[in-house]
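Field notebook, page 338. I keep forgetting to write these up properly, so this time I am using the form the group agreed on. The chain and the ligand, iron/sulfur cluster, are recorded exactly as supplied. Prediction of the bound pose follows.
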Amino acid sequence: MDAASISYDNNREPSSQPRHDWTRAEAETLYDRPFADLIFQAQSIHRNNFDPNHVETASLLSIKTGGCPEDCGYCSQSAHYDTGVKATKLMDADEVLATALRARDAGASRFCMAAAWRNPKDKDLDRVCDMVSAVKGLGLETCATLGMLTPDQARRLRDAGLDFYNHNVDTSPEFYGRIITTRTMQDRIDTLAHAREAGLKVCCGGIVGMGEQVGDRLGMLVLLANLPTHPESVPINMWNEVKAVPVNDTAERPDPIALVRMIAVARVMMPKSVVRLSAGRQYMTDELQALCFLAGANSIFIGDVLLTTKNPQATRDANLLGRLGITSQLDNAIDPAA
Ligand code: SAM
Ligand code: DTB
Ligand code: SF4
C-alpha cells in the first residue's frame, strides 16, 4: 500500500496520548506520508501540547573539554583522533557561574554543563554538584551531560538541584557499532534508567548526517519513543563537521526535506517532548529552520559556540525568531551595550 492511500483520522491522532509500542513500520508509514499531511498532523499534535509560537533557548558550556577515552567517531573531544582540540581540566565553579550568568542575560532559559568524560569520578562529581547548585540559584533550569552515571551519582546530582540529564543514544541500534565501540547502547540505556530512577528529567536524542540511512533515523526515534517514559527533551543534532574523525569517511548531510520529515515524526511519536533543533543549525537556511519549527521543533541552543563547534550568532537567531513571530527568552535578553 502506498503512503498516499493510507487514511488517517486527523481528529484522533492530535489528541492521542504518548505511546510506547511504536513499530519501525509505523514510523516508516508516518515518514512517507505526503508532506502536507505529515506536517499538518505534526503541527496539530504540537498545538495540542505546546504554544506553537514559542521556542525554548538553552545554552551549553563545556566544563571539561577534550582528552576523552571514548571513541565516538563524530566527536572532536575523543583522545583517539587528532582533531586539534586541546584537553583542559575541569573548570572552576566561579567561572562556570559567571558564564551561566552571561547566558541567562543573553536569553537562555536552561544551562547545560558538558564534560568529555566516559563517566565522572566521584571527586569530580562533587565539584559538578556545587556548580549545579550555584547555576540553579540563578533561576536557570540546569542540565548536565557527563557520560555514564551510577544510580548513586544520579541521586547526588538530583540532590544538588539538577533538573535534566543529557545522555544521547546517538543513532539506531543497528548503526551504533559503526560509530562507537567503547560503550554499548545498553550502557547508555542503563544510564538513562539511573537518571530516571533518581527523579531527573531526561534529555536524549542523537545525530543525523553520519552516513546513516533514513531507516536508522527512524530506528533511533522508535527506540526513544519506546523507552518506559519519553525523554522530556529530544535533541536532534546534525553532525557538525570535525576534522580527522572517522565519520568524515561516511558523512552525508541529510536532504533538508528529510530532516523536516524526521522532526515531524519525532513530534508525532513523542507528542509531549520538547524537540530541540540542536547542533548543525549553522548549516541550515532560515527557511529550513522555519519548516523544522512548523514540524514541531521547539527548542534551540543559543550562543556562538556549542562545545567545540560553531552555532549561529545570537543576532541571527533573534532576527529569525522575530520574523517568524516566535517568542523566546531571547526577547528578555539584556543588551550588554545598554
Ligand atoms: N561525554 C558525554 C557523553 O558523550 O555522554 C557528554 C558530552 S557529548 C559531546 C554529548 C553529545 O553531543 C553526544 O552524545 C552527541 O550526540 C553530541 N555530539 C558530539 N559531537 C557532535 C558533533 N560533532 N556534531 C553533532 N553532535 C555532536
Ligand atoms: C546534544 O545533544 N547536543 C549538544 C549537547 N547535547 C551536549 C552537544 C552538541 C555538540 C556539538 C559538537 C561540538 O560543539 O563539539
Ligand atoms: Fe567523549 Fe562524549 Fe565525545 Fe564520546 S561524545 S568522545 S563520550 S565527549
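OBSERVATIONS:
- The chain has one domain: 33-323.
- The two ends are 61 Å apart (CA to CA).
FOLLOW-UP: compare against the apo run.
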